[in-house]
Specification:
The complex is a heterodimer of chains A (about 325) and B (about 375). Chain A is of the alpha/beta class and about 325 residues long. In chain A, about 30% of the residues lie in helices and about 25% in strands. Chain A contains nine helices and twelve strands. An eight-stranded mixed beta sheet of chain A has the order 6-7-8-3-9-10-12-11, with helices on both faces. A four-stranded antiparallel beta sheet of chain A has the order 2-1-4-5. In chain A, strand 9 and strand 10 form a beta hairpin. In chain B, the strands form three sheets. An eight-stranded mixed beta sheet of chain B has the order 6-7-8-3-9-10-13-12, with helices on both faces. In chain B, strands 2-1-4-5 form a four-stranded antiparallel beta sheet. The chains are: A alpha/beta (about 325), B alpha/beta (about 375). Chains A and B meet through helix 6, helix 7, helix 8 and helix 9 of A and helix 9, helix 10 and helix 12 of B. The structure holds adenosine-5'-triphosphate (2 copies), iron/sulfur cluster (2 copies) and magnesium ion (MG) (2 copies).
C-alpha cells in the first residue's frame, strides 16, 4: 500500500475470508460471510452499513468475543504480520485482546456496573491484562481520564452520576488505557446529542493524531463516519463490498449500494432530492447466491447471478460486476 | 386533497360542544406554555420544580410542518405531551382549532384525540406485541364509533396503502415482531392517521432508523402532509433532516425557544449562538471533516431545577456579556420577517455602537485545523 505522496503504508490488520456464522432455531445466520479488508497502521477505517448487516458481529469476530451459538468462525486475521487465528482462546486473551486490540462495544456506556465506582471499572483491564497493581491501575486510569477530558474526581463516582457524554469518554478511556495498537469503536456516538457527538469525535481525532493508535469505527451515521475516516469500508449483508480512501469514496462511491446509501444522506446545505433504497436487505439465513444487492440494484444485469469477486481500482476495490 | 383521503370522522365526534374562539386562528396556538414537574423530597415535601417547558409560544398553521429542534432533555417531549393533552400545563394556554385544550371535557376530548395523531419516538415499543396489524388499526376506529365493519376494513386498507404497505391483505395478519423497524414505524403512522387528524405530532419519528429507511418514512409523512393538508409538529435533534421536511423551525434550549424562523433562514442565516453551535457541530459527509476540530461550547445543558439567571445559555456562550446575559432574561427580537431571536446581541440599547448580532467567526462554521 502507498499513500498519495508515495510513502509506504504498512498494514496493521489484514483480514481475509473471515466468517462468523451463528446457529439459531430458524437456521444458520451468516452474519460475517467472507469479509476481506486491510487496515494501515496509524489510520482509521470506518465501517458503514445498515442495521443488521453484520458490523457488530465483525467487530466481535476481530476481537474474538464470541457468543455461545457460534456455528463457524474461520478465516485469516493478521495483526502486525502475525496470524492471530492460530492462537488458541487463552493465548488470544492473554496476548491480543486489550493489550493489542481493545474495543468500545455498542451501547457500552449503558453497561457500566452501577455499584462499582467508575475508576475501578476503567482500571480493570490494566490490572487484569497488564498486571498492574490496583493503585497503579487507578493511576493509569487517572492519566487516561486527563487524555479524554474526564475530570479526575469522576474516578470515584458511580456511572449514574455521569452524563452520557462523560460515561462514553470513560469507556473510551478504558479502551485506551492499555495503549493498544488498534481500538475498535462500535457506534460510539449514536445515542448522544449533536454537541456531545462532536465533542467525542474531536477527542478521537486528537487521540489519533497524538498517539500511534489505529481505529476501526463502526457506525451507520455517514456524516459522523467522515469525521474520522482515512478509509471507508462499506458492509452489506455480511460482506464488505467496497473499500477505499475517504476522499475518493465521499467524492465518488463505486458500488451501487454505496451510491444509494450516500444519496439517502440528508445534507445541511440541502441539495438533491433524497433517495431511499427500495426493498429490504436479504435474510442472512439464506442469502441469495450471486450479488447480494442484486434484488435492490438499479444497475443489475445478467452477470450479477454470479458472486462478484474483488475488482481493484488503483488502491480502492469493489465487489461489483460493473467494475470488471 | 385527493379523493382517496381517509375522510372525516363519524358525526358523533365531529362537533365539539365548546364554541370556536376565533375561526381564523392558526390550527395550533401555544401561548406562554409552562410544563413544570414537581420534585418531592421524602415523597411529599416540595423540593423544587423541573422547568421542562418554561414560557414557550408559537403557532402552527393548517397544513404546515414545524420542526422543533433541541438536545436531549431540553423539553421537547414535555412540550409534545402538553399539546397532546397528556400533560396538564402548569401555566399558559394551548388552543387547537380555536378551542382551549385544557377546557375540553369527555366528549370533546374524544373529538380532540381524533384530530391529533401521534407518532412516538421509538417504533419498537410503540405497537402492542399481541395484536396483528389489522387489530392495531381497527382499535381506534372501534373506540371512536366506526361501527360498520365494511367501512372499518376500507379505512384500514386505505391507511396501509398510504404508508406504502400494499397489498394490505399481505400485511394485515402480521404481528409487530414480523416487521422491520421501518415497517413498524409505517404501521404506527397508519394508526396515527386512521381517524383523519388535522395535526400530527411526530416525536423523533426516524431517529432509530437507518438512513435509507429514514428517507422513506419522511417522504411518506411529507406526502400525507401535502395530500391531507395535515399540520405536523416534527420533533428532532437532527438539523440535517429539517430542510427536507419542514417549512418552519424553532430551536429549543433548556425549556425555552432560542430562535424561530423559516427553515432556510435558520440553516443559512442562523443568528442565535446556540443555533450556531448546533450547526458547527453538525456536518455533511466530506473527507475534509477529519482534518478539523469542531467548535463545541464547553459544559453541558443546565439543571432545569435551578436554571442559570438571565440567558440560560450564558454559562456556555462564547459571546456572553457580563452584567447583561447573566442577569437579565434576553428579549425576543424579530431580526427580519418571521425570524425571532432570543438574545441580547440583537438588543440596540445593550449593544450601543457595536454591530448587532454574533461577530463573524469562520471557524465556527468550518472548524479549526487539527
Ligand atoms: N449471537 C447471535 N445469534 C444469532 N444471530 C445473531 C447473533 N448476533 C447477531 N445476530 C444476527 O446477525 C446479524 C448481524 O447482526 P449485527 O449485530 O452484527 O448487525 P449490525 O450491523 O451491528 O447492526 P446494528 O447497526 O443494528 O447494530 C443480524 O441478523 C443479527 O440478528
Ligand atoms: N414526569 C417527569 N417528572 C419529572 N421530570 C421530568 C418528567 N418528564 C420529563 N422530566 C424532565 O424534564 C426535562 C425535559 O424532558 P423531556 O423528555 O421533555 O426532554 P426531551 O427534549 O424530549 O429529551 P429527549 O431528546 O432525551 O427525548 C428533563 O430534565 C427530564 O428529566
Ligand atoms: S454486481 Fe450487479 S447487482 Fe451487484 S451491485 Fe453490481 S451491478 Fe448491482
Ligand atoms: S443572550 Fe447573551 S449569553 Fe445568551 S445567547 Fe445571547 S449572547 Fe449568548
Ligand atoms: Mg451493531
Ligand atoms: Mg423526548
Amino acid at each position: 500500500m502507498t499513500t498519495t505522496n508515495g510513502a509506504v503504508r504498512e498494514p496493521l490488520l489484514e483480514i481475509e475470508a473471515l466468517q462468523l456464522h451463528f446457529k439459531t432455531r430458524s437456521g444458520i445466520v451468516q452474519a460475517v460471510d467472507g469479509v476481506d479488508f486491510q487496515l494501515p497502521r496509524n489510520e482509521a477505517t470506518v465501517i458503514i452499513g445498515e442495521s443488521g448487516c453484520g458490523k457488530s458481529s465483525l467487530a466481535k469476530a476481530i476481537l474474538r468475543l464470541l457468543p455461545r451459538n457460534v456455528h463457524d468462525f474461520s478465516g485469516r486475521v493478521e495483526l502486525g504480520g502475525e496470524d492471530v487465528m492460530l492462537l488458541n482462546d487463552e493465548e488470544y486473551r492473554r496476548h491480543v485482546r486489550w493489550k493489542r486490540i481493545s474495543m468500545v462495544p455498542q451501547a457500552a456506556m449503558n453497561a457500566l456496573n452501577p455499584v462499582l465506582r467508575v475508576g475501578e471499572q476503567v482500571a480493570e483491564p490494566a490490572v487484569v491484562h497488564l498486571g498492574l497493581s490496583k493503585d497503579e491501575g487507578l493511576q493509569r486510569a487517572l492519566e487516561t481520564f486527563a487524555q479524554v477530558g474526564v475530570p479526575a474526581d469522576f474516578l470515584h463516582r458511580y456511572a449514574f452520576e455521569l452524563s452520557g457524554g462523560m460515561r462514553q469518554r470513560a469507556i473510551i478511556a478504558m479502551a485506551l488505557l492499555t495503549d493498544p495498537d488498534l481500538v475498535v469503536l462500535d457506534e460510539p456516538t449514536s445515542a448522544l446529542d449533536v454537541l456531545t457527538q462532536a465533542n467525542i469525535m474531536n477527542l478521537l481525532k486528537r487521540v489519533k493524531k497524538e498517539s500511534n493508535t489505529s481505529f476501526i469505527l463502526i457506525t451507520h451515521d455517514i456524516a459522523t463516519s467522515s469525521e474520522l475516516a482515512d478509509n471507508v469500508a462499506v458492509m452489506y449483508a455480511g460482506q464488505i463490498v467496497e473499500v477505499g480512501d475517504a476522499a475518493s469514496f465521499f467524492e465518488e462511491p463505486l458500488h451501487p449500494y454505496s451510491q444509494k446509501l450516500m444519496a439517502s444522506v440528508p445534507r445541511l446545505s440541502g441539495g438533491d432530492e433524497l433517495e431511499f433504497i427500495t426493498g429490504q436487505p436479504p435474510s442472512l439465513i439464506n442469502p441469495p447466491t450471486g450479488c447480494r444487492f442484486a434484488e435492490r440494484c438499479p444497475a443489475r444485469f445478467d452477470k450479477c447471478d454470479q458472486e462478484p469477486p474483488i475488482f481493484y481500482k488503483g488502491e480502492r476495490w469493489v465487489k461489483c460486476w460493473l467494475h470488471e | 386533497m385527493t379523493s382517496t383521503t381517509l375522510g372525516p370522522i363519524p358525526v358523533a365526534l365531529a362537533s365539539p360542544s365548546i364554541p370556536v374562539v376565533d375561526p381564523d386562528a392558526p390550527l395550533l396556538s401555544v401561548r406562554d406554555l409552562r410544563v413544570w414537574y414537581e420534585l418531592k423530597r421524602w415523597g411529599f415535601a416540595h423540593a423544587g420544580d423541573v422547568r421542562a417547558v418554561d414560557g414557550v409560544s408559537f403557532d402552527v398553521a393548517r397544513g404546515e410542518s414545524l420542526a422543533v429542534v433541541g438536545e436531549s432533555g431540553c423539553g421537547k417531549s414535555s412540550l409534545m405531551k402538553a399539546i397532546l393533552g397528556l400533560n396538564t400545563p402548569t401555566a399558559g394556554q394551548i388552543l387547537f382549532d380555536g378551542r382551549d385544550v385544557s377546557a375540553l371535557r369527555k366528549g370533546d376530548l374524544k373529538w380532540f384525540r381524533s384530530q391529533v395523531g401521534y407518532v412516538q419516538q421509538d417504533p419498537f415499543g410503540a405497537l402492542p406485541t399481541f395484536m396483528n396489524v389489522k387489530r392495531i388499526l381497527e382499535e381506534p376506529l372501534i373506540i371512536n364509533g366506526v361501527d360498520d365493519p365494511v367501512e372499518r376494513q376500507a379505512r384500514i386498507e386505505q391507511a396501509l396503502i398510504e404508508v406504502k404497505m400494499s397489498p394490505p391483505a399481505e400485511w394485515l395478519p402480521k404481528f409487530p415482531h414480523m416487521l422491520s423497524g421501518g415497517q413498524q414505524q409505517r404501521v404506527v403512522i397508519a394508526r396515527s392517521m386512521i381517524l383523519g387528524p388535522k395535526l400530527l405530532v411526530a416525536d423523533e419519528p426516524v431517529s432509530m432508523l437507518d438512513a435509507s429507511v429514514r428517507v422513506e418514512i419522511l417522504k411518506i409523512l411529507r406526502k400525507l402532509q401535502e395530500e391531507h393538508n395535515l399540520a405536523v409538529v416534527y420533533i428532532t435533534h437532527d438539523l440535517s433532516t429539517v430542510r427536507y421536511f419542514s417549512e418552519h423551525i424553532f430551536v429549543m434550549y433548556a425549556g425555552r425557544i432560542a430562535e424561530m424562523a423559516k427553515v432556510d433562514d435558520i440553516l443559512d442565516d442562523a443568528s442565535h449562538p446556540y443555533t450556531l453551535a448546533l450547526l458547527s457541530a453538525s456536518s455533511d459527509p466530506d473527507a475534509r471533516n477529519a482534518l478539523v476540530q469542531r467548535e463545541v461550547p464547553p459544559g453541558e445543558p443546565p439543571s432545569l431545577v435551578h436554571p442559570p439567571a438571565g440567558c440560560r445559555f450564558n454559562p456556555r456562550c462564547a459571546f456572553a456579556m457580563e452584567g447583561v446575559c447573566d442577569e437579565r432574561e434576553p428579549p425576543t427580537v424579530e431580526i427580519k420577517d418571521e425570524h425571532l431571536v432570543h438574545c441580547w446581541l440583537y438588543d440596540k440599547e445593550v449593544m450601543g455602537d457595536r454591530p448587532l448580532g454574533v461577530p463573524a467567526r469562520k471557524e465556527l462554521v468550518d472548524g479549526k485545523p487539527l
